[in-house]
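Chapter summary example: a protein plus iron/sulfur cluster.
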Amino acid sequence: MRTKTETNIQLGHGGGGLLTREFLDRHVVPRFATGPLEGLPDGATLPALENGIIFSTDSFVVHPMFFPGGNIGDLAVHGTVNDVAVSGGIPRWLSLGMILEEGIEQDVVGRVLDSVAEAAADCGVQVVTGDTKVVPRGLCDGMYLNTAGIGERMPEFDLGAARLQTGDVILASGTLGDHGMAVMAAREGIEMAGGPVSDTGPVHRLVQAARPFATEVRFMRDPTRGGVAAVLNELVEDAPLGIILQEDDLPWSTGARAIAETLGFDLLHSACEGRMLMACAPDVAGLILDAWRAIPEGNGATAVGAVTNDDAGRVLLETCMGGRRLVDVPQGELLPRIC
Amino acid sequence: MKYLDGFRNGKAAKALTARLKAAGERLDAQGKTVQFMEVCGSHTMAIARYGIRDLLPDCVKLISGPGCPVCVTDTGYIDAAIDLGKQGHILATFGDLVRVPGSDETLAQIRAEGARVEVVYSPEGAVALAQDNPEKQIVFLAIGFETTMVPGISLVKIAAEKGLDNLTVLCAFKLVPPALAALGSDPEINLDGFICPAHVSAIIGADAYKPFVGPRGVPCVVAGFEPLDVLYAAVELAEQAADGRAELVNQYNRVVKPGGNKVAQAVVAELLELCDEPWRGIGVIPESGMQLREAYAAFDAVKRFGLKLEPGRPHPGCQCGEVLKGKITPQQCPAFDKGCTPTHPLGPCMVSSEGSCAAYYKYVRREAGAETMEVSK
Ligand code: SF4
């Protein structure tokens, strides 16, 4: 039997002494200490990248830590990998910062780190540097993670709201809003058969699939906090263009819709963690959809709307009834601690 | 979700829109423009959320009525609640009310300054507060239409049974039919029909609208709040108007019965009696409210604390009254999207998620003062 010090995290595990050494040997070395992290140097030495780098960071405080479809570990990898990917980068290296609450079970930490390792392998990224701190009980809720990622820039992508043109097509890589609803359902203790499952996953392969058409791609984003509504409103905010979405074409999962109806959420405001929204020229839209649908993460891909030159600065929805309404930006933080 | 999809079916919507267009052409031929009022806040939301105004012919207008309970709660009522909170009593409320401006401040503001304003989700929540705080007086803010009367007053029964002497209710219950009668007879508004509420009608029954129809009346359609329900109601009203008929149609008969919910009606009759009631922005409508009967006076906050409800001073720039009566659209209020937004509301119509101003802000917006409410195509 293991003693309490062995089953639960203590303040000393983050203190830099012997217990830290034990923690690293138990959790970090077996999972990550190959390549640049071998021997646990203070900093990772990485090769230069020819086309420049894309660099991004994100912190993760999701509650609950485990939810249908994933946990804080794979989420932390996907979040940063996706930010790098939609910026036109091939994700290569990650850092991993952990803030642990005193008393959290070591097994829980281990399970989360297993997910980090698995997700990193799936994304083709290496965890090359990291840090662990432990804070007294009550000063953090279980575990918070931070990841930063470096990717190699793909020069053929030239992305930005300024490149948007009338007639561009808006593509979605799969059902929208599942992650937000899955976390909400888990948090509210709503259990139901066929309930929402988080879409947490990487979008880098979707970016690769669209790469042959890169010059015709105007904009890519994974719609996280604030959902589709926030991303698209930001896109046309200062533009002389607007966007019109077709409600009948929006892909929703049954589980996410059930929760959204029950809790009174607009799914357009709900976060995804493994989906892609893209604006591209109309002549490549069908080709990109075909390429996406040929890989698992894109099998639900579909066109959801178009860029118009009336209604500048606004995102509208043509509803299933045939009328139009505004898709507004969420007011404040609707769903706290979703990622 | 199959069940819901049945009410949001695009094909059915197209068929109804075609009927609406045909009715519109007949009205045009007669040189008539008609105005229908959707009474209930849920209808207001569905109409805005699904862009149903876009589907109406030019000669058919839908205006939002007084059917959001928070929006019609009088400023003086909020002031009285605020006074009680400041005296150290615990206020219990069902939510939206906390951000509604009184004459000078909101319940949310006095809460931030230390007053106890507790949001409860059921009458039992207020009872629990009373049991947990025996040294305090708990005042439950009982507002709403026929739908919320039963849950609101059921705590009086529980309190009586448990012998709780620290729980009272501050009643501002309102009845929908008298408000419809007042609005329907206002020559300035000129209504040609009502989309009658769903939940309220489930309690009072579809027959409650019989007095409004007939040779000297206007058509009434009781409708559910799925978009197809509302669209159907608009079609039915437009067709009746074109025919010169004024009949009662219960489209929501999957829930609403002609006589309503007798059990709920009996509970209401046992505890409550008619009273004159002030409606924010509309004024006092005779016999349009319900107050606790004398036998339950011990649980009436007005009597326990010797309250005098004064009229209150709503924000001078707020035109909620005109919006509530359907005389202006929210965008025609100069404050709309300028001084008044959901994060900084001047009036209750912007606070409540079911308020007309909030619905327009969320789903239509556009420059204030605009003549039409359609989104440009
Ligand atoms: S927009 Fe604001 S100020 Fe104007 S009527 Fe509505 S709630 Fe009142």
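Key point: Chain B has 15 helices and eleven strands.
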